[in-house]
Amino acid sequence: MIRRPTPQSATAPSYFEGKWTTVEDGGPVQMFYEVAPDGSVLRQIERFSDGRAARDELSTYADGLSDYGRGSLHEVSFWESEWDDGAVVELSLKPISRAAFELAWRDAGGLVAPPPGYELTEDPARIDVAAAHAYLARSYWSRGIPLATVERALANSLCIATCHGGELVGLARVVTDRATFAYLADVYVLEEHRGRGLARAMVAQLQAHPELQGLRRWLLFTADAHALYEQLGWKPLAHPERGMEQHDPDIYA
């Protein structure tokens, strides 16, 4: 049975990750992660200086505004702290990899659900290939790409799409061996749906995907979305002089 952590048990072996971590930028006063021997996160505990702040946080989680992007949040609970006048919010999690969990709490914020009216899906049956082709064929990176090529590309990739009113309005895909390497490609949101965090939500969910953990390298190319990817931990190539390519920009002409 997993024990509820206390300050005294914070250094116990196996199940407990470090000690209470002080949070400097608002929110909970301290945070604590309960980690299984295999490294998966089982529970996150947040301690607040007062019960009202804890209840506000609990309400946020209960409303589904922060679900780690993949339904990892199993349940939340609240109890008055036994060791001071504060309060604690406990998040019991379904097993989630450490990498995905840490990604969810980068400085840019947690993985969040898309705004109301939008839905993320990885179901190939719900990804409208014709709609994806309509955008990709006019994009700067694959202008003129044939429909058959888009069909083959999506069929051989791990894809995520954003739907609105039953229509495909955004897409992102990963080409990967699911062991060492992933290439992020064809990330787009239709012009009239931009500015709502949809691209970030799609990419964040792909990065947290359970089949894409522990990879040695991710790679992408972009002309103008560097700021988006920097929010999710991407950086310029450390050694661009080591890279080479074969590129035919006119292949679809």
Instruction: Give the overall shape.
Output: globular
Helix fraction by DSSP (H/I, runs of at least 4): 10-25%
CATH superfamily of the largest domain, by name, is: Gcn5-related N-acetyltransferase (GNAT)
Beta fraction: 25-35%
The CATH architecture of the largest domain can be given as: 3-Layer(aba) Sandwich
> Could you state the order of secondary-structure elements as H and E?
EEEHEEHEHHEEEHEH
Mean pLDDT: 75
Strand segment tally: 10
List keywords for this structure.
253 residues, alpha+beta, Phosphorylase Kinase, domain 1, Aminopeptidase, five-stranded antiparallel β-sheet, five-stranded mixed β-sheet, 6 helices, 10 strands, 28% strand, disordered N terminus
Describe what this molecule looks like in 3D.
This protein starts with 15 loop residues before the first strand and ends in a 23-residue tail after the last helix. Strand 8 and strand 9 (181-189) form a beta hairpin. The chain has six helices and ten strands; from the N terminus they run βββαββαβααβββαβα. The chain folds into two domains: 7-104, 2-Layer Sandwich (Phosphorylase Kinase, domain 1), CATH 3.30.200; 118-237, Gcn5-related N-acetyltransferase (GNAT) (Aminopeptidase, 3-Layer(aba) Sandwich), CATH 3.40.630.30. Helix 3 (129-136) packs across helix 4 (147-155). The protein is an alpha+beta fold. The longest helix is centred in the first third of the chain and has 12 residues, at 51-62. The chain is globular.
Short description:
With 253 residues, the chain is α+β, with helices and mostly antiparallel strands.
Task: Give the SSE layout.
Elements: E1 16-22, E2 30-35, E3 41-48, H1 51-62, E4 73-80, E5 87-96, H2 98-104, E6 118-121, H3 129-136, H4 147-155, E7 158-164, E8 167-176, E9 181-189, H5 198-207, E10 217-219, H6 226-230
Parallel strand pairs: 9-10
Antiparallel strand pairs: 1-2, 2-3, 3-5, 4-5, 6-7, 7-8, 8-9
